[in-house]
Amino acid sequence: MTILLVPYHQDERLPERTIPLAAPLGAETVEAMLPDGDVWPRLVALYERVANRVAERLAADDVPAVVSGDCLVAAATITGAQRAGSDPAVVWFDAHGDVHTSHTSASGYLGGMALRLVLGAHPERLAEPLGLRSPAERRALLVDARDLDPPEVDYLSRSDLRRCGVEELQEALPAGPIVLHIDVDVIDCGELAGLRFPVPNGPSRSTVVDAARRVLATGRVVAVDIACPWYPARDEHEIATRARLLDELVDAVRNSG
Which end of the chain is more exposed for a tag (fewer CB within 10 A), N or C? Predict the structure, then answer.
């Protein structure tokens, strides 16, 4: 297993220790020289590097775990899996739907569009420049998503994108190879401080980690994408809490092989 650390929130380079991976985990940092100007070419420049590294690791019969500061990087992880010859379905853990478009988002926050972009919205922005072949909606599973805006509810009601709770996950998994995406904000915000978009009444950390282990135990996960959309930690306690969570998730990937 290889850990690919992408220390960015969208196109913003994050301060050191924002994503506190333990030193023994041996993460490889992926960075890029980003062009000036619009955010989309900047994201494409970064994600091209990430996709190439994912493809290289898969070609070496490795399962890469991409750890970053936001959900958009999942587009690169999926692209990399496709470049390596896989046609993965997507299992997407998140407290939010991430199925807005630029036309429905009230805030314009790009992370709220991440899954919809993967599934084919605004293809000229990420999918086409990266060469991402958007999976069919029926091959994506949205897990939890307890905080939905009205346009997201409307989209989910008429799309083939499936949705389930963390506890029902095993029965709902799509067939074939899987890219497993885990936004850590799926965890109840009472257990994980400092999230950019905290949502209460969610599953516990242990419940989410156990669910991830069950998906990994299928032997069908070709790559893992872990998003950490939190603000820089306020103290050592927050750093330690985050480090333990990441250690547990990475350990689940390592032990799945």
Answer: C
